[in-house]
Design goal:
- The protein is 49% helix and 10% strand.
- It is of the alpha/beta class.
- The protein has a 6-stranded parallel beta sheet, sandwiched between helices.
């Protein structure tokens, strides 16, 4: 077990009618004006935005709003939000939605608090410890952005999808009512469950030391998703299943499942970010499409972890060699993806990539990660090309 730091300052208000606390929680931030940031028509159509605005009005909390966030949130809307927020003297951002909205809100927060181009942070040209505070009303269980230090933005001019991480961007609070996720399309629910699994696995598959308690927590998070994802597809209004998955999403990406682990992997995320930036694929689906190929490419370098995953998470019988057990675990994971309608290849994503396409994606991966990435196995450009071709 390695030394570690653990920081999770986000206050959680979880459960039915928790959104009714939104004005109270914002008031506690002593802010002067709020930017309500949200996605498409669903937040308006459901009445949630109107309810939030009514609650803020009743408490005399001034606000402006900006909708239009899409999956793989766009830098162009971030620029628009920064301009609006500065014009209106906004000093607090309320993100109403899922990971894309929250990530966009964090980026706007960076842009308000810092001079210059906010993209510089995502392009790794500058760093900052300043961000206008963010609060969340969560409507999608997936990215875990409501408790994380991460933000991922797509530059719609260049097609580059890049992330930035600072502790200062962790939301001050997150309101989590599982009922808000009941109207999500099946595909979006499945993508969310996949993202939760992947955030946990990126920390689980490491070649370094681990902590037994952290392993048990991570395995439990994954088991909860494996159990409840099929339930949600059959019973979308099952509150208990929604609640379990929503909380799993937060725990998967707030740092808890990485305590005592020095080197997290996140190579699958790196591979997907380029697909998402260039081809605008759904994040969860992109992760599922490349994970199996990544796993088969690296498992021998991290055999003990893959065997443990197979037995403790995927319920593979401990029969045969370690390698056979590990491969059965990978196969079981892919069967789960298919069972919830997720792809396990790039072709199943609907993409037909040429060798030239793959070379370009690999170049972008290397630019983004400084030439190498991974913990289960450190990947260089040649490895990245091979994995993309396997996944194709």
């Amino acid at each position: 077990m390695y030394n570690f730091e653990y920081y999770t300052p986000t206050f959680i208000e979880f459960g039915k009618k928790s959104e009714e606390k939104v004005a109270q929680l914002i008031k506690a931030q002593n802010c002067k004006k709020v930017l309500i940031h949200y996605g498409g028509h669903s937040a308006k159509k459901s009445g949630l935005i109107d309810k939030i605005e009514k609650l803020l009005t009743e408490e005399n909390i001034p606000y402006v709003e900006l909708g239009g966030v899409v999956p793989n949130p766009r830098l162009s809307l971030v620029y628009k939000g920064i301009e609006l927020a500065k014009k209106e003297n906004v000093d607090f951002i309320l993100a109403v939605g899922g990971g894309s909205v929250i990530d966009s809100a964090k980026a706007i927060g960076y842009g308000i608090a810092n001079e210059g181009d906010v993209w510089d942070f995502y392009a790794q040209k500058r760093v900052t410890d300043k961000c206008v505070p963010v609060g969340v009303v969560l409507t999608i269980a997936a990215a875990g952005s409501e408790m994380s230090n991460s933000s991922v933005i797509t530059n719609d001019e260049t097609g580059l999808k890049r992330s930035y991480h600072t502790e200062i961007s962790r939301p001050r609070f997150a309101i989590m009512n599982p009922e808000f996720t009941m109207t999500l399309p099946e595909y979006q629910t499945a993508c969310g469950c996949t993202d939760i699994m992947m955030h946990t696995m990126e920390r689980y598959f490491t070649a370094g030391e681990t902590m037994e308690l952290t392993d048990k927590i991570a395995e439990s998070v994954m088991q909860i998703v494996l159990k409840n994802a099929p339930i949600l597809l059959e019973q979308p209004d099952n509150y208990e299943a929604r609640a379990e998955v929503m909380w799993a999403g937060s725990l998967s990406h707030n740092g808890l499942t990485g305590c005592g682990i020095k080197n997290k992997d996140f190579a699958t995320h790196m591979l997907e970010h380029e697909l998402g930036g260039v081809y605008d694929v759904a994040h969860g689906a992109g992760l599922a499409a490349v994970w199996g190929s990544w796993a088969r490419y690296v498992y021998k370098e991290c055999l003990g972890r893959f065997k443990k995953f197979a037995i403790n998470v995927m319920n593979v019988e401990e029969v045969g060699s370690d390698e056979e057990i590990a491969l059965k675990g990978i196969e079981a994971m892919e069967k789960f993806y298919h069972s919830i309608g997720m792809p396990t290849s790039i072709k199943e994503l609907g993409l037909d990539l040429t060798d030239a396409d793959i070379e370009k994606l690999a170049d972008q991966c290397c630019d983004a990660c400084g030439g190498h990435k991974g913990s289960a196995k450190v990947l260089y450009r040649e490895d990245i090309v091979k994995i993309y071709k396997m996944a194709r």
